[in-house]
Each structure stands twice: as structure tokens, then as C-alpha cells.
Write a structure and sequence with these properties.
The structure holds 2 protein chains of 2 kinds. By secondary structure, chain A is of the alpha/beta class. Chain A folds into 4 domains: 224 residues, P-loop containing nucleotide triphosphate hydrolases (Rossmann fold), CATH 3.40.50; 85 residues, Beta Barrel (Elongation Factor Tu (Ef-tu), domain 3), CATH 2.40.30.10; 107 residues, Elongation Factor Tu (Ef-tu), domain 3 (Beta Barrel), CATH 2.40.30; 182 residues, Rossmann fold (3-Layer(aba) Sandwich), CATH 3.40.50. Chain A contains 18 helices and 27 strands. In chain A, helix 12 packs across helix 18 and helix 14 runs parallel beside helix 15. Chain A is globular. Chain A starts with a helix and ends in a 7-residue tail after the last helix. The C terminus of chain A is likely disordered. By secondary structure, chain B is α/β, with parallel strands linked by helices. Chain B folds into 2 domains: 187 residues, Rossmann fold (3-Layer(aba) Sandwich), CATH 3.40.50; 83 residues, no CATH class. In chain B, 35% of the residues lie in helices and 15% in strands. Chain B has 8 helices and 10 strands. In chain B, the strands form 2 sheets. Chain B has a 6-stranded mixed β-sheet with strand order 3-2-1-4-6-5. A 4-stranded antiparallel beta barrel of chain B has the order 7-8-10-9. In chain B, strand 7 and strand 8 form a beta hairpin. In chain B, helix 6 runs antiparallel to helix 7. Chain B is globular and about 55 Å long. The model of chain B has no long low-confidence stretch (mean pLDDT 90). The chains are: A alpha/beta, B alpha/beta. At the A-B interface, helix 1, helix 3, helix 5, strand 2 and helix 6 of A face helix 1, helix 2, helix 6 and helix 7 of B.
């Protein structure tokens, strides 16, 4: 009994020792990428199997599955270990990134197995965004393909500096050194401009395990490392700690009046108690009083740590601001240039408003200029008016409020952002900031003494933008015109912005493509905003087919100032009325991009006023609008806090 | 010189970051507390993330009425000691119909009491974000899931159309009725969990430690007869064996393993030489191929 006890204690000690050893190991995050069928999933299955990460029950399941879905004949199909979704197993392809974990005596690894199909590029980018190294697989029989290039470019843009070119299926070309050397040279030439720090080519057979964890006896001509030897020893420098201090404020922790802490993760650099910091957006200085952590205050914290900072004085800071070192401040700007990778089926359109998110900040943003698109085959810069799904380009971006950031090349955390669609909330793009644009810094708001409130009071009215949207021929202009006449007669100061009229002047350079429609609405919305500022009741009569632009217009205006009026006439009725003869021509194919025919109209979901026109006279509809406006003004009068008009 | 962060330091920081992100961006988050070791780690991290404040969200346990008694005791003790806001939900329809693992099988029981029960609770309180303790190393469909995993208004997961998840920039936007499941332990392995429990001295349900317990061998698994709702079949005998559990769920569906590991070190040492994965002890994952993915698409965690 005593003997058993002693063994147990010894065992406990050796476990603690073992765990201490585990803690000393560094972690390498990498991804496998490349074209379809180059053997990415098979390679990971091989790595997991050879490093003994597969349990008996998993192996039994794998053997069962291999018989059912496998593509390797009698052998176990390792790809089925990582292709975890039913659809993937049925189709024998990888759709989404899978994360797998393994360790060797020297290092721990998190590997992202990413899909090769072009349509799933966004999932490849997801895997690459958190990786330090990329294994680019190349089928020895195929050489460098379009997807090999696309993935290499994306890896490079996302800041990956170490590449392994896994020249796979070398068994199928007779372990031929010539093939290996040709592909190595081809890749090196193509990747020259991508700024990789290391490119290590390794000939291998993932299926049979040659040069994965076991040195192949069939390639005496190859003297380089096996894949696992390279992964265990490659140096991935920890840059973040050496960079200037950045602390994006994530959450303000305020449990009671005596405590106000700024919670976040140190993005780069380090911070100690007593250090001076600057609030990036306001430029205000303060000093770190405490670094609070559960279990006792810390004296200092470094990049990667999630802490709570308490400052010496009550400076104004909210989520999205950044605490930084006084010695090296980030950019604070509302315009910058960035590399953008586009993920969504609906193309990126210059002028359209998106939501931009950095790690903790959020702002409305538009692409003001698409400088060029990158051709993934030859890196040529091509002129483009939109960025389609899976394309990469350089854009100028303008945000509604200033953002604090670094260039992505200097800081992978504070130089990155994503773009979100306003309607679907989908993540539609990822951006890496190149540099701020100076324009923003040099053009300041001129402050004016006569305020919008004063202008409106003089006119004794509530400035509004009545935004009429609907198909061509739905009756927008008729109702708008009659409404203006009545308002005018009642002593209101009004103006109509009519789609056709504006296209004769301000917007005469614009056509009817999606990109031009977006720009058309953006300009009109800005003009309407100026007019509302001047105190007018602005009636906008535009087809304005896209929800995103109508929402952008709404957000430009003050609270409650934007009134969406949906002139709802069925397509058939508009085509029948056809006051300008346009439907006949569009249906005959003589006019392209005609709303309702070959260009979509996105119906308003919650318009303030919904005019169903069938069976109603224009007079009745004008009355509906007037009644609504009077109702609003009365309601506001009742609940007036004295600040409004 | 500043110390380098260890592997566990990084995992901890990542999880804390995720907790705070949810608290900062969602209106009504909740943490799913299932009382197991992963939930214990999650709870510990939540306490750390908001210190000195308490976590600004409640903890929800979806009880199937078939959990081990020791789990329920442990749950109530933790809630009392740490002072967190505990919500317990049991599917009333399942109780009315007396849904149980013996008569209805693990599939129906799990679907009604866990999946539907969870959906009911989420709808009842209108939560827009729910933390769970799932890890990517547990199962192959979980290996595919995002940290912030979108659910439509029917609580369904669409594995073929997940939002891209770049860097640590999380898209936390949802429309009315939609929600996000959030997995702060995504990048932890089973070993990391045990190592962290050891390092931080985190309390766990005693069922994880070996002890003599009354078990019945059924369908090749050792089932702890936790109460007399479990009727013995002909030829079955209750034996007192030295056993422990690698995972905890409903007692009739959770197999014990014979083991003498009565300390955390013993558990880790046993785990390092284990030749089967932890979910092997769970009946629900074996019912059919791809069964976890199917459950998740229906709204299971």
C-alpha cells in the first residue's frame, strides 16, 4: 500500500513536470492552402496520424467512413478526418476551414485546413488571418495553378511571411527531381514580389507519408528538412511586443461609482503602472494608475494580455478609442487607402455605404475610389468599377467619423478592418490599411454662426427630407409635384429634387449601372442634406432601387428628418401606363439596366409612408402624406423637450 | 525583462477578450452552464473577464431531469458561492410526456430535452448571444465552427454559409430574433482544459475523480445507476466498481471508465495515455454518422 502511494506521488510529480514542459513549448499557427485536390486535407490527416493525435475510436470511425465516402480505394482516406461536414464528405470537397490541434515534443500546432475552391476563398482568408505560416500545396502533376497564386497573394496581403511550398503527390511523377526543381523555380519567380521572408519547397507524398514526418527513402536527391522538421524549427518572430504600445478599448467596466476600468487586449508593445498614455482620438494625456487583474494588480502587461487599465484622471474614453504611447501615435483619420479582399456575391460598389469594424471600433464607411483590381495571375493592376466576389483591390475609404489606426504593415491588429453589409449584416470584405489619405487632415469643418436651428426657426418649419421611392412610372413625380404645390400654398419653404432633372445637370456624367446608381443616390442625398440644413422641406423623387442607398441617405439626415415614402404601384401597372414609353423599349431590350426589367428594385421594408396607388387619386395620396406630417408635428410638439423646433 | 506569455496565458487572454466583446456589443447575452469541466473553466474565465465586477449576464442550465445528482448539487453550490444569476429551464412538454432516455432512446430524449429545451429558453428570455463551452478538438463538425457562430431566427446553424471570421474582429451584428452562439474555448484542447484546471485550482464535479460507484454494464458501457428510475434488465447486476467519468451529461447516456485516477494529476496522466477520445463515452454521438452536425443545425449547442 505504501508502495502504491509512493508511486502515485512520483507519478503526480512527473505529470507536473510534463505539464511544465508543455508550457514552455511555443505555438505555431499555420494553414494549408492551394488548389482543389492538391491534397490539403490528406496532408493534415497524415500529420495528425503520424503524430499520434488520432484515437482508436476515431480511427475506427475513419475506416468505416473511408469505405463509405473514401476516394483512396482500400486505404484509409485521411481527408475524411478533417472534412467534418456532411456536404463535404458527400461531395469529397472542403467547404469551410477546419481547425486541428497537434503537438510534437518540440512545439504545439494549430492548423487551419482551408478549402481550395475559388467560391470558398473567404473561408481560406478566415484561416489565413490568424496564421503565421502557410503551407501552399502544389500537385506535382499540375504545377502552379490560378488558385495557388490567389492563395499566395491573399496570404501575403494578410501578413503571412513564411511559406512552405509542399510539392505533393511526387510519387505520381516517379519521385522526379526535375519536376520538383521546375515547380520550385516557377513558384519562386511568381512569388518574388509578395514579400515573403522564407519560401521552403519540400517534395512529398501526403498519402504515403514521404517527407511529411518520415524522411523518404525514394528521394535521395533531396537533402532539405521534412515538413515536420521545418515546422518544429521555423522562427516566427514575436513582433508585437517590440512595437509601440496600442490598447484598443473594448469595454468600459464600471461596476460602481468608485471604479472605472478600461478593459481590452494589449495589441502591441507593453505598459507598466505609472506609464503615460495618450487617448488616440482626443490627444488627451493620462497616466496608468493600476493594471487590474483577477487575483491582484499587475505591475506591467505585454502584447496579447487581456487586462483592465485604470487611469489617474477622468478622461473621456469609450469603446473604439485606443490608448497609445506618447512616443509613437497612430493615425487618426477618416480617409485612408487599403487593400480589400471581397467575399460577397453582391459586388463592392464605390459610393455604397458599409459598416466598417476594426477590433473594437465601428463607423459608417464608403469606398470613395476603387483605384485598381489585382489580376491574380500576373499581378497586373486593372481598372475596375466594382470588386466582385473573391477579387482583391486597392480602395480609398472614407468613414463618417475618424478612426484610430496604424498601417497594416506596421501592426496586424490595429491596421485591419472588416466591412459589413448594412442590410444582411454579412461580413462582405476584409481590409488591410495601406496609409491615411491627407485630404481629411487638411479640410476642417468651418464652424458657422448661423445654425441650422436658426435657419429653420426663421422659416417657422421643421426641415425634412421626404424621400419618394418607387418604380419608374409609379406616380412619384405626380404626387411629389402636387404635394409641393400644397405645401407652398401653405407658406412652407420647399424644393423638389427630381431624378430626371438632376440627371440633366449635377449627375449627367452618370449612367445606369449599379455603380452609377449608387453614386447618383449618394450625390442627391448629400444635396438634400445641405438643403435640409438650410431649413427647407426637400422632396426627393428618385427610383432609388437599392435599400442600402436609401438607408445611407436616412443616416445622413438628423434624427426623424428622413421620411421614406414608398409609392407602391405594381410592375404590370407601371408597364401599362408607361408615360415615357420606356417600358416598351426596355422590354424589347433597347434599354439596359432598367429597374424592374433587368435591374432589381428592392422594396422598402419599413417606409414611414406606404402609398398603394391602385384605385387612389393623386389628391388622396397627397392627403395621406399631409396627414402623416401633421400627425408627426403634433406628436413632437407634445413631447417637445425644448431642444427641437 | 518582461516574461513571455505561455500557451495557457494566450488561451486565457483570447477567451477573456471574447467574453468582453459580447458584453460590449450584445443587448442580452447569456452563458450556457452545463456543469461539466468545460463549463467550470468557462465560468472561471467569465469571473476573470469582468473583475472586479460580476459577469454582466445570467447563467442558464438546460436541465433534462436526467443529470447526475452530484451535478445538480455542484451547480447550486457554485451559484451560491460565486453569487451568479442562475436560470434553470426544463422543457415542460418533455416532462408532461415523460420523455426519457430509456423509453424514447438517446436521440429523441436529447432532441426534446436539450435541443428543444434550449430553444425554448432562448426564446423565452430573448437572448441574442449565448456562450457555450464547445471546443474544436472535440468533434469534426465543431472543428469547422466559428468562434462567433451565427444562428437564424429558428436557431439553426448553416454550416455551408458561415460568416468569414477575420483576425479578432468579430461581426456581432444580428437582426431581430437572430442570435450568435459564442465559443470562447474554441482553440482549447482537452489537455489545455485539465492543465488550466490544475493551474488555477478550479473546482469541478467530483464525478471526474475515481471512486467506488454502483454501475451496470449495458450496451458495452458502464452506466452509473444514479437513481431507481433506471430499471435493471434481466441478467444485469449492479457492481461496485472503481470508476470515473471523462465527460458528464445525462447519467443513462454517459459511460464511466474504470480508473483509479483520484487526483487531477492522475486524470492528466491517464489522459496522456488514453487511446480513445472523450466523446466516446457519450451515446448521443454514436447514434448516426454526422449526428453532431445534424443536432447543431437543429439548434443544439
Amino acid at each position: 500500500m505504501r508502495h502504491a502511494m509512493a508511486t502515485k506521488i512520483e507519478a503526480a510529480e512527473s505529470v507536473r513536470e510534463y505539464l511544465a514542459g508543455q508550457e514552455q513549448k511555443s505555438l505555431l499557427r499555420f494553414l494549408t492552402c492551394g488548389s482543389v485536390d492538391d491534397g490539403k486535407s490528406t496532408l493534415i490527416g497524415r500529420l495528425l496520424s503520424d503524430t499520434k493525435q488520432i484515437f482508436e475510436d476515431q480511427l475506427a470511425a475513419l475506416e468505416r467512413d473511408s469505405r463509405k465516402h473514401g476516394t483512396t480505394g482500400e486505404d484509409v482516406d485521411f481527408a475524411l478526418l478533417v472534412d467534418g461536414l456532411e456536404a463535404e464528405r458527400e461531395q469529397g470537397i472542403t467547404i469551410d476551414v477546419a481547425y486541428r490541434f497537434f503537438a510534437t515534443p518540440k512545439r504545439k500546432f494549430i492548423v487551419a485546413d482551408t478549402p481550395g475552391h475559388e467560391q470558398y476563398t473567404r473561408n481560406m482568408a478566415t484561416g489565413a488571418s490568424t496564421a503565421d505560416l502557410a503551407i501552399v500545396l502544389v500537385d506535382a502533376r499540375q504545377g502552379v495553378l490560378r488558385q495557388t497564386r490567389r492563395h499566395s497573394i491573399i496570404a501575403s496581403l494578410l501578413g503571412i511571411r513564411n511559406i512552405v511550398v509542399a510539392i505533393n503527390k511526387i510519387d505520381l511523377v516517379g519521385f522526379d527531381q526535375g519536376v520538383f526543381e521546375r515547380i520550385t523555380a516557377e513558384y519562386a519567380t511568381f512569388a518574388e514580389s509578395l514579400g515573403f521572408k522564407s519560401i521552403v519547397p519540400i517534395p512529398m507524398s501526403a498519402r504515403f507519408g514521404d517527407n511529411v514526418t518520415r524522411r523518404s527513402d525514394k528521394m535521395g536527391w533531396y537533402s532539405g528538412p521534412t515538413l515536420i522538421e521545418h515546422l518544429e524549427t521555423v522562427v516566427v518572430e514575436e513582433e508585437a511586443v517590440a512595437q509601440p504600445f496600442r490598447f484598443p478599448v473594448q469595454y468600459v467596466n464600471r461596476p460602481n461609482l468608485d471604479f472605472r476600468g478600461f478593459a481590452g487586449t494589449v495589441a502591441s508593445g507593453s505598459i507598466s503602472q505609472g506609464d503615460e498614455v495618450i487617448v488616440a482620438k482626443s490627444g488627451k494625456p493620462s497616466t496608468v494608475k493600476r493594471i487590474v487583474a483577477h487575483g491582484g494588480d499587475l505591475r506591467s502587461a505585454v502584447a496579447g494580455q487581456a487586462v483592465t487599465l485604470v487611469l489617474d484622471d477622468e478622461v473621456e474614453i469609450s469603446r473604439g478609442n485606443v490608448l497609445v504611447t506618447p512616443d509613437a501615435r497612430p493615425h487618426v483619420a477618416d480617409q485612408f487607402a487599403a487593400n480589400v479582399v471581397w467575399f460577397d456575391e453582391a459586388a463592392l460598389l464605390p459610393g455604397r455605404s458599409y459598416i466598417l469594424r476594426t477590433e473594437t471600433d465601428q463607423a459608417s464607411a464608403t469606398v470613395t475610389d476603387l483605384q485598381y483590381r489585382v489580376n491574380v495571375n500576373d499581378f497586373a493592376h486593372e481598372a475596375a468599377r466594382a470588386l466582385e466576389m473573391n477579387e482583391v483591390g486597392v480602395c480609398n475609404i472614407s468613414t463618417q467619423s475618424p478612426v484610430a489606426f496604424d498601417n497594416f504593415a506596421d501592426n496586424r491588429t490595429t491596421g485591419a478592418f472588416i466591412l459589413i453589409d448594412r442590410i444582411t449584416n454579412a461580413t462582405v470584405g476584409a481590409g488591410m490599411i495601406l496609409n491615411p489619405l491627407r485630404r481629411a487632415g487638411n479640410i476642417h469643418w468651418q464652424s458657422l454662426d448661423v445654425t441650422r436651428k436658426a435657419r429653420a426657426e426663421l422659416k417657422n418649419q421643421r426641415p425634412s427630407v421626404l424621400w419618394f421611392t418607387g418604380l419608374s412610372g409609379s406616380g412619384k413625380s405626380t404626387v411629389a409635384n402636387m404635394l409641393e404645390k400644397k405645401l407652398h400654398a401653405a407658406g412652407r419653404h420647399t424644393y423638389i429634387l427630381d431624378g430626371d432633372n438632376v440627371r440633366h445637370g449635377l449627375n449627367r456624367d452618370l449612367g445606369f449601372t449599379d455603380e452609377d446608381r449608387v453614386e447618383n443616390i449618394r450625390r442627391v442625398a448629400e444635396v438634400a442634406k445641405l438643403m435640409a440644413d438650410a431649413g427647407l422641406i426637400v422632396i426627393v423623387s428618385f427610383i432609388s432601387p437599392f435599400r442600402a442607398e436609401r438607408r445611407m441617405a436616412r443616416e445622413l439626415m438628423g434624427q426623424g428628418e428622413f421620411v421614406e415614402v414608398f409609392v407602391d404601384t405594381p410592375f404590370e401597372e407601371c408597364a401599362k401606363r408607361d408615360p415615357k414609353g420606356l417600358y416598351a423599349r426596355a422590354l424589347a431590350g433597347a434599354i439596359k439596366n432598367f429597374t424592374g426589367v433587368d435591374s432589381p428594385y428592392e422594396t422598402p421594408e419599413n417606409p414611414e409612408i406606404h402609398l398603394q396607388t391602385l384605385g387612389k387619386t393623386p389628391e388622396e395620396m397627397v392627403e395621406t402624406v399631409e396627414t402623416w406630417l401633421n400627425g408627426r408635428d403634433i406628436a413632437e410638439h407634445q413631447y417637445d423637450d425644448g431642444g427641437g423646433i | 525583462m518582461l516574461a513571455r506569455l505561455t500557451h495557457l496565458d494566450r488561451l486565457e487572454a483570447e477567451a477573456i477578450h471574447i467574453f468582453r466583446e459580447v458584453a460590449a456589443t450584445f443587448t442580452k447575452p447569456v452563458m450556457l452552464y452545463s456543469v461539466g469541466k468545460d463549463s467550470s473553466v468557462l465560468l472561471h474565465l467569465a469571473m476573470k473577464a469582468f473583475y472586479p465586477a460580476k459577469p454582466p449576464f445570467p447563467f442558464l442550465h438546460v436541465d433534462t431531469t436526467w443529470k447526475f445528482r452530484e451535478m445538480i448539487e455542484f451547480r447550486d453550490t457554485m451559484a451560491r458561492e460565486l453569487g451568479f444569476d442562475l436560470l434553470v429551464h426544463v422543457n415542460p412538454d418533455g416532462v408532461r410526456d415523460n420523455i426519457n432516455p430509456f423509453d424514447h432512446g438517446s436521440n429523441t430524449h436529447t432532441h426534446v430535452m436539450k435541443t428543444v429545451g434550449l430553444r425554448q429558453a432562448l426564446d423565452k428570455y430573448g437572448f441574442d448571444a449565448a456562450f457555450g463551452g464547445a471546443r474544436r478538438d472535440e468533434e469534426k463538425s465543431r472543428a469547422k465552427e466559428r468562434i462567433f457562430s451565427f444562428r437564424n431566427a429558428q436557431h439553426a446553424w448553416d454550416p455551408k454559409n458561415q460568416r468569414p471570421e477575420m483576425w479578432k474582429i468579430f461581426n456581432t451584428r444580428v437582426a431581430q430574433g437572430e442570435s450568435i452562439r459564442v465559443f470562447p474555448l474554441s482553440n482549447w484542447t482537452e489537455l489545455d482544459i485539465w492543465q488550466y484546471i490544475l493551474q488555477e485550482n478550479i473546482p469541478i464535479v467530483p464525478l471526474y475523480f475515481a471512486k467506488h460507484r454502483p454501475v451496470v454494464e449495458r450496451d458495452g458501457m458502464l452506466i452509473l445507476r444514479d437513481d431507481d428510475r433506471m430499471k435493471l434488465k434481466p441478467g444485469e447486476v449492479v457492481e461496485n466498481k472503481l470508476v470515473r467519468f471523462r465527460t458528464l451529461g445525462c447519467y443513462p447516456l454517459t459511460g464511466a471508465i474504470e480508473s483509479d485516477a483520484d487526483s487531477l494529476e492522475g486524470i492528466v496522466s491517464e489522459m496522456l495515455t488514453a487511446r480513445t477520445s472523450e466523446r466516446q463515452g457519450r451515446l448521443i454521438d454514436r447514434d448516426e454518422a454526422g449526428s453532431m452536425e445534424k443536432k447543431k443545425r437543429e439548434g443544439y449547442f
